[in-house]
From TrEMBL:
This is HlyD family efflux transporter periplasmic adaptor subunit. Keywords: Coiled coil. Signal peptide: none annotated. Residues 96-204 form the YbhG-like alpha-helical hairpin domain. It comes from Montanilutibacter psychrotolerans.
Length: 335
């Protein structure tokens, strides 16, 4: 017995010739929707609002004796932020200044040359040495004939000759010392004295600068972001005593994903969105890195390359961004 199927039954609709066409239309619709969504999706990057930060390091390992500001306070350029104890540094500065003064006086002495009294003293020493040399030589001259006639021991004659030679040498030494004083200071000695003065003055300036830096002042107008140490703490050399946030307005620090990196350039306009704020802020790309901030490209293959991100900074150009705090999450869309 032959069975006839109803063409309007569910089985006929699922297996009939219209089913492939429906599936093709559905796939085409999904593809078109996906392509439209990809084409209309804005080129965006995520990040946070940031300010330029200035760190003020400790110039010396001294105790904090005064803190004049609070975290979050707005400060002006040149305003005193905190003070360090200056006892040891002031003593080191005084010692360096005294050493520099001593070297300058030594140089003055070299430039002035020997005094007349020094020359007269050496002349007297020369006269005494010459007189002693003449006496020793005369004694040897008297003893030598006696030695030849064997009336005195040969050892006595030898000692007399050695004494005469030694006296002559001392006389020549005194004569050389007198000549040195009369010729004055050598130019090499003057150059050494000048170098010693410059080195001492440089060391004194270093100590004086360190002493001045014990009163920590703001190099620019800004806001106190943090004071890592408290009153009475002794920070090590180079540790940050205060951190300032400077700049008229914050900027957006974002990470640009690899698929849109080729279309982002310096000077490009951008819109910056913040949660809880109606409408975007207008910005401009002021910097974008050429190297990825995360995994290097040579360690990735295939679709993993899309995970690369490039650090960028977007400068906010509107005045309504001047009072925004740092750290807020932002979303940046590039035009």
């Amino acid at each position: 017995m032959q069975t006839h199927r109803d063409p309007h039954s569910p089985q006929a609709s699922r297996h009939g010739p219209a089913a492939p066409r429906c599936r093709a239309l559905l796939v085409a619709l999904l593809v078109a929707t996906t392509l439209t969504a990809c084409r209309d999706e804005p080129r965006q990057a995520l990040g946070t609002l940031e300010y330029d930060r200035i760190s003020l390091p400790a110039p010396a390992a001294e105790r904090i004796v005064a803190i004049a500001v609070r975290e979050g306070e707005q400060v002006r350029q040149g305003q005193t932020l905190l003070n360090l104890e200056a006892v040891r540094t002031r003593s080191a500065n005084d010692a360096a200044q005294a050493q520099a003064q001593r070297q300058r006086e030594v140089l003055d002495e070299l430039e002035a040359g020997p005094r007349d009294e020094d020359i007269a003293q050496v002349q007297a020493q020369l006269a005494a040495a010459q007189a002693q040399a003449r006496d020793a030589r005369a004694y040897y001259d008297r003893l030598r004939p006696l030695g030849a006639r064997q009336l005195v021991a040969a050892a006595d004659v030898d000692r007399a000759r050695a004494a005469a030679d030694s006296a002559d040498a001392q006389s020549r030494q005194a004569q050389a010392a007198l000549s040195e004083l009369r010729h004055g200071t050598r130019r090499e000695q003057l150059a050494q004295g000048e170098s010693a003065v410059r080195a001492a003055d440089a060391q004194a300036r270093v100590q004086q600068e360190t002493l001045a830096k014990l009163s920590v002042v703001a190099p620019r107008a800004g806001r106190i972001d943090s004071l890592p140490f408290k009153l009475g703490d002794q920070a090590p050399v180079g540790a940050p005593l205060a951190i300032l946030l400077v700049g008229a307005a914050p900027y957006a620090r974002v990470y640009v994903p690899e698929p849109i990196r080729a279309n982002v350039r310096v000077g490009q306009a951008a819109r910056v969105y913040l949660d809880g704020r109606d409408g975007p802020l207008i910005g401009r790309v002021r910097m974008i890195r050429n190297e990825a901030g995360f995994t290097p490209y040579y360690a990735l293959i295939g679709k993993d390359a899309a995970r690369l991100s490039y650090l960028a900074e977007v400068e906010l150009t509107g005045k309504d961004a001047e009072q925004l705090p740092a750290g807020l999450p932002v979303r940046v869309e590039f035009e």
